[in-house]
Target: 8-amino-7-oxononanoate synthase
Amino acid sequence: MSFNLEQDLEARYEAGLYRRRKTLDSPQGPEVIINGQHYLAFCSNDYLGLANHPEVIASFRRATDSYGLGGGASHLVVGHSRAHHQLEEELAAFTGRERALLFSNGYMANLGVISALLGKQDAVFQDRLNHASLLDAGQLSGARFQRYLHNDVDNLEARLQKTSARRKLIVTDGVFSMDGDVAPVQALSDLAAQHQAWLMVDDAHGFGFLGATGGGVAEAYGLSQKQLPVLVGTLGKAFGTSGAFVAGSDVLIETLIQFARTYIYTTSMPPAVASATRTSLLLLQEQHWRREHLQNLIQYFRQGCEQLGLQLMPSQTPIQPLLVGCEKRAVKMSQLLSERGIMVTAIRPPTVPKGSSRLRITFSAAHKLSHVDRLLDALKVVADSVEIERVTDTASGF
Ligand SMILES: *Cc1c(COP(=O)(O)O)cnc(C)c1O
Model:
């Protein structure tokens, strides 16, 4: 008897969807070493350049003197350290919520929250371009599961009008991870209020960049705990560390502590990671120049692309995807760029809808304008040798 695994791998390869890992021999940063080769990279989510920040690293080192390394147990057994607790209190203050709760990563936070809040009598409404962890969480919860058209408040409203579910949860990315556009959170919040629904925003890519002090979409649009009751953030992106948090009311957090299985049945993150994150939270809030510099990089890049006739997607965030369309062509472009010493990843289905493969270009506050010049020069050469489909022909996601 055979599982025929080779067949599935072959099919994936033939479709231009095969994925390979790159092995990194350096810290995350604008310049990385992969398999011994130096590259200028535009693909991490380290938006503020904190993943290799000396103060963050120093906090981590100091904390290992106090706490050692491993969390050693789940939070409810004996793995909840003072460092975890302090970080939770600081994240609650940062987000203007009553409380915050740490999870080991964003994937688990989303699975835990949606499953804890919803069951069979309930309904979950998700933007069709939501992150895979949210979609998986919706399925796992057993609630009636609906996907509405991307950022389409009318389409969502029509669906809300028809439901007779006990609890209704609207779920969206804050900043969409593969498109870089921002959800209409104010309108979603108003709609939730009209339909006695709750709004949950996963702002993995908004924290650190959006809002006057990096508080993400909630801060940028001034959404209170009442307007946006379930706010999720991840620590592996702009915070530059690892983990995730959920911020909300006291009763929400108590519910998660009692019922979120991905919180209860897993080891706490290393306490030193929590300590390091306390330092990155301070830097994230106080060092406005990182957000301002990112804005400059983004505008500079978009103007450069316009001059080259390259059509970007309508994004004003550090995620600047160049839509290519065809899966194989996106991979080819990524290869040609890497031959010129530039690392940009091709994003293909099932991460994005079929026919909307793209180069996901991301910027970090650690990039310089001269890095963007090098990227634009390389894109010009590569785009000339690999014709890019017009955005309007292939876009299915927006
Ligand atoms: C990255 C990401 C996650 C997962 O977070 P991890 O901490 O990496 O597991 C969840 N949601 C969104 C929108 C993300 O971009």
